[in-house]
Design brief:
Blueprint: E1 8-12, H1 16-27, E2 33-36, E3 45-46, E4 49-52, E5 63-67, H2 72-80, E6 89-90, E7 95-96, E8 101-102, E9 107-108, E10 113-114, E11 119-120, E12 125-126, E13 131-132, E14 137-138, E15 143-144, E16 149-150, E17 155-156, E18 161-162, E19 167-168, E20 173-174, E21 178-180, E22 185-186, E23 194-197, E24 202-203
Parallel strand pairs: 1-2, 1-5, 2-4, 6-9, 7-10, 8-11, 9-12, 10-13, 11-14, 12-15, 13-16, 14-17, 15-18, 16-19, 17-20, 18-21, 19-22, 21-23
Antiparallel strand pairs: 3-4, 23-24
Length: 217
């Protein structure tokens, strides 16, 4: 877990999710941030912290990096490119149960809950107000979105997006590379990659109609 003992964090990204990451880092006691994004303009910054286009070859001593991209595959790519220390961020208002494990580069947002004995993989986002209950497993670079609920003993693969306000009932398994639409309810195992919407969640016939809802930053 990142704490105020960190000298600072290079936040890799400058979109909306990067701002949420910065907010959590500041709440956790981090005093120094630098945003890194190839698209920033000269003089840009956020909350008084600068933004630069390229990560320096030599980092400031004691600093770490944090991939702050909402899109799962972009976040994975940023993670895999790093040779520096990668931070893990857990909001002070979040709760993490006994024997739960939160992987490197993961984010547990404000008022989120990770239940006892849950396993959260590398680069996972458990976003604001989301619940991942007891004995769950969430695979690397997945995103449990705002106010979604994952009940106990669920198995979620890698590169899965659980949309805002969605519910996954207990003991369900979801394979890799799945997108669950906002507000959907998953009541049975999902064994094929794709997009699933509705209550109960069913495969979406045309994924193009949901392309705009995928997180991009």
């Amino acid at each position: 877990m990142t704490s105020s003992s960190e000298a600072g964090i290079y936040v890799l990204g400058f979109g909306g999710h990067a701002r949420s990451v910065a907010d959590i880092a500041l709440a956790a006691g981090i005093k120094n941030l630098i945003f890194v994004d190839g698209n920033v303009q000269p003089g840009e910054g956020f909350a008084g912290f600068p933004a630069i286009t390229t990560l320096p070859m030599r980092l400031i001593p004691g600093w770490s990096v944090f991939p702050a991209l909402g899109d799962n595959l972009s976040r994975k790519a940023a993670y895999n490119q790093q040779i520096a220390s990668i931070a893990t961020l857990i909001s002070p208002s979040a709760t993490v149960g006994v024997r739960a494990q939160v992987g490197e580069g993961a984010l547990v947002g404000h008022h989120a809950h990770v239940g006892p004995a849950a396993l959260i993989g590398r680069g996972v986002i458990v976003n604001t107000g989301a619940v991942v209950e007891h004995d769950c497993q969430v695979g690397d670079f997945s995103h449990i979105s705002v106010n979604s609920t994952v009940a106990g003993r669920v198995r979620i693969g890698s590169n899965v997006f659980v949309g805002a306000g969605a519910t996954v009932i207990d003991k369900v398994s979801i394979c890799n590379d799945v997108m669950i639409g906002a507000g959907a309810t998953v009541v049975g195992d999902i064994i094929s990659p794709g997009t699933y919407v509705g209550t109960p969640a069913r495969p979406l016939k045309s994924e193009a109609s949901l392309s705009r809802s995928r997180p991009k930053d």
